[in-house]
Design a protein that fits this description.
alpha/beta, Rossmann fold, 7-stranded parallel β-sheet, 5-stranded parallel β-sheet, 12 strands, binds (2R)-2,3-dihydroxypropanoic acid
């Protein structure tokens, strides 16, 4: 039992929880489901620190419910679109996340999705399990080649670059669109070519999304973009669900405007848009981007380190709003 009162909104790997328990009094939400909003509001009250997940809506209401003792929010994720950062900063609450550590795992998953989708592995798995498979057939479940095709990446940050490096091994040519263009030597080293979003959408055989969710990226891929994609192109989303207008995607898939989609994230996670689950040529993963043992352990430790630094009045080592420290 330590000095600080901390809420941990879900069981996280012990490697991180142990570090927190050594110095804090922990209220852990132990149920194997996200903490309901009313519980979150109630349990946040009076806490010095909160460890949350990307599935916890940390809006102004939760921050206000926590009260004036709250010093730090540590999220076990790189994305922090679930946290009202302006409100946290205004109240002098530092927010920490887990960048970098999940880059390679998320890039691995992206390639796994691209390969499963293009080579129809999930459809094949369903066929074999169903008992309806009658053996090898020349036209059965034929998919896409990768060599010489074009991979378009939206958001060439850490994860986007790791995806581009892997794509090279499969003979894919990589084009990208980003808010800021990379310096030419860096582009040449990966190698990648910068294009406009419209060109990216039109030219890609595989269009893979790696941008953060914010006002600019909300529904970045909607009806218009889906109509511009090649009919044999595939969409892959491992970023955040709302980057894609999921209803428009279902419509595009039904009309066969594109060849298929692989999603690791959903607009109303964990709910799916009506009709999505019934479409054969989609691969649906349950937000597995960072789900490797080593990565999740490291994320938990980083989360604990962020929390403890914030509780001690310092800056979390991975802080997304250092300016908050000026306020407290
Ligand atoms: C993150 O950390 O933001 C990822 O989405 C987790 O897989």
């Amino acid at each position: 039992m330590g000095a600080w009162e901390v809420l941990v909104t879900r069981q996280i790997p012990e490697a991180g929880l142990d570090l927190i328990r050594k110095e804090c009094s922990v209220r852990l939400w132990e149920e194997d489901r996200p903490i309901p909003k009313e519980k979150l509001l109630a349990l946040a009250a009076g806490k010095d620190g909160i460890v949350c997940l990307l599935s916890d809506p940390m809006g102004g209401d939760v921050i206000a419910a926590a009260g004036p003792k709250l010093k730090v929010i540590a999220t076990m994720a790189v994305g922090f679109d679930n946290i009202d950062l302006d409100e946290a900063t205004r109240r002098g609450i530092v927010v920490g996340n887990t960048p970098g550590v999940l880059t390679e795992a998320t890039a691995d998953l992206t390639l796994a999705l691209i390969l499963s989708l293009g080579r129809r592995i999930v459809e094949g798995d369903r066929l074999v399990r169903s008992g309806r498979w009658t053996g090898w057939a020349p036209t059965q479940l034929v998919g896409a080649d990768f060599n010489g095709k074009t991979l378009g990446i939206v958001g060439l940050g850490r994860i986007g670059k790791a995806v581009a490096r892997r794509a090279k091994g499969f003979g894919l040519n990589v084009i990208y669109h980003n808010r800021r263009r990379l310096a030419e030597p860096e582009e040449a080293a990966i190698p990648v070519r910068f294009v406009s979003l419209e060109e990216l959408v039109r030219e890609s055989d595989f269009l893979s999304l790696h941008c953060p969710l914010n006002q600019e990226s909300y529904h970045l891929i909607g009806k218009e973009q889906l109509e511009q994609m090649k009919p044999r192109a595939y969409l892959i989303n491992v970023a955040r669900g709302p980057v894609v207008d999921e209803a428009a995607l279902v419509e595009a898939l039904r009309k066969k405007q594109i060849a298929g989609a692989a999603l690791d994230v959903y607009e109303q996670e964990p709910k799916l848009s009506p009709g999505l689950a019934e479409i054969a040529n989609v691969v649906l993963a349950p937000h597995l981007g960072s789900a490797s043992i080593e990565t999740r352990n490291r994320m938990a430790v980083m989360t604990a380190e962020n929390l403890l630094a914030g509780l001690k009045g310092g800056l979390p080592p991975w802080c997304v709003n250092p300016q908050a420290r000026q306020k407290k």
